[in-house]
Amino acid sequence: MINYDSQNKIFYLNAKNTTYAIGLTDSGLVAHLYWGKRVNFVPKADPNRFGGHSYSAFDYGDYCSNTVPQEYPAFGNADFRIPAVRVSSKLGHHVKLQYKDYEIVDGKPKIPGLPATYVEESAEAQTLKLYLSDDVQQIEVVLYYTVFENFDAIARHTEIKNLGEAMELNGAMSACVDFYGLPESRLITLDGNWANERVVTDRKIVSGNQNVESRCGVSSAYHNPFMAVCDEKATETAGNVYGFSLVYSGDFTAGVELDSYRSARAYIGINPFEFTCRLETGDVFATPEAVLVYSAEGFGAMSRTYHDLYRTRLCRGKYRDTERFALINNWEATYFDFNEEKIVAIAEKAATIGVDTMVLDDGWFGKRLSDNAGLGDWVENPDRLPNGLKGLAEKVNACGMRFGLWFEPEMVNPDSDLHRAHPDWIIHTENRNRSLMRNQSTLDLSRKDVCDYIIDAVSSVLRKANIQYVKWDMNRYMTEVGSALLPAERAGEVKHRYMLGLYRVLETITTQFPDVLFESCASGGSRFDPGMLHYMPQTWTSDDSDAEERLKIQYGTSMVYPYSSMGAHVSACPNHQIGRTTSFEMRCNVALPGQFGFAPDLNRCTEKALEIAQEKIKQYRALGPVFHSGDCYRLKSPFETDWSVVQFVSKDQKTAVVCVNSAKATCNAPDEFVALRGLKHDATYCIDGTPFDSEYLMNTGIHLRNGRENQSFIMVLELV
Ligand code: GLA
User: What pTM value is reported for the model?
Assistant: First the structure.
């Protein structure tokens, strides 16, 4: 997987169909030579090739770092582009990195305290460690590159060690890739807002810096920690695509800076905007991991690599590979207006149609009668739950169902016993307003005592009753960021320390309760990121559960994340977020490929709807393995057409499922076909008993009937 050509000083990192090549100059600069389709060799670093002119400063021997494509550029030399690392100390703020040594190890080292992809056996991957240092600034930088044997993916992160006196780290990217002579290209990002997450944004890369970032303390709904650089004409099925995904749940930046030589510096990492980290002598800072995926065959292949890697080598635990739950959640059925009797009635009805898990959402604890009070007091409300969680869980279990519970452990309402006892346990800055968002403050998870409290509080509830599923919510961004335990000059550490605290909490709780299925949520999908997926294999995709809107949200999400990670429920009707009426069948069909569930009180649904629901649960059980571990092909985009057509093919190609949805009604519309993908060549597939040639299906395709509103169907193909 990794070879070093010592004569030409080139490291070759060969993933499945990909080569990534790194060159060393005689002057100790680590140059980026190539990333793309697998090749046998590439030209070595050469001053003639990497330009410079009479006005250049040749800061690395024959090379001017301003024109050399690099692996980890630093600031303070001749390179005026956005740097990967910045520090400040008594010695100034310049860094000049020199290559020192390398090491190639089997497998993949862990990143202490941070989520990351992993291997189960060391033969699955190799890791290159490049040692760089600056003897003046007295730092050592180690660049890690893990190459996976079976994926076109390279995982990178960086460690920075302070060998001198105390200093401050002002920014450290997880990965930086300099594209040299970038052809006309586009930048794809996933952007949005609450209830409108991961809209695909597609823009031309132009001169200057273009980036997306989060400054609100969590990865956020505004931008996802992902970007792809792609050919001008790249499509779902063709063209070079270079994906960058950050395994982190806090502030991030991801962008591309294009200069006049058409060198494009792509970078991803913790957002340096409100970040500093003081490093004492000997301290090491580890960046989060960036996962770089190359596809020579457009966006679809990039997504499938992310899907496979993330569902098998990022997600963990008992539920990684097993069938998950078909649940009902009471939030939209009752909001805060419930008691034990109502919940049991919902469970009893749901059990009759095959739902297997009853999830009790917000409002079961403290004085939580509305979103004004109670967060932080994780003790049952005896008026609502006279028999406690234990009694309720027993009743739900008696219906033959599992019992699940909602928490929002990172938050506190000012009107709560927890806040009254510990007003300083929240993120705040002395002498500043403590702005509330949804009437709540963020607990300061940069503090060990607060994290320990959360671990205790959640664990003791989970021990109290037979709770087999947890929805872990988080419903606000961070403002006036500071911590009572950190001096003002360390305020720039709070957000990252928060993430380290959160990850420790999640690691501890999920390890203590391996049989519980955890789903993360943040006002819907405001923290749908690879960091959270490492601890919880699924995320509530969006608070917008309108079927038509979900088609877009799920489509955008699938650019990086597998359908197995998307919580998707049949919504109430008219939909609570936008008031639209959609057929029950379409609502089911849209949710089916995700982690399926129901929001409406089924006691209020018609018999016809219940019949459909029962059928759909059966279909979900039958097709779940294809949706959740097969290959996903996006055939028609709801961003570009009136359709959303997504196809799933089992890894053995024996079963394929096509999910067709359109909410557009056109009378007497023209005929339309959609060609399928990923079927076995030269084979026959049966659709409803009728045989079809696979080549016909992949050329002409299937007929999209049109002309009716809420056009929605699921087509199953079986290999004959
Ligand atoms: C957030 C979640 C919802 C629901 C409410 C409860 O908005 O995204 O699904 O759990 O909180 O307050």
Answer: 0.98
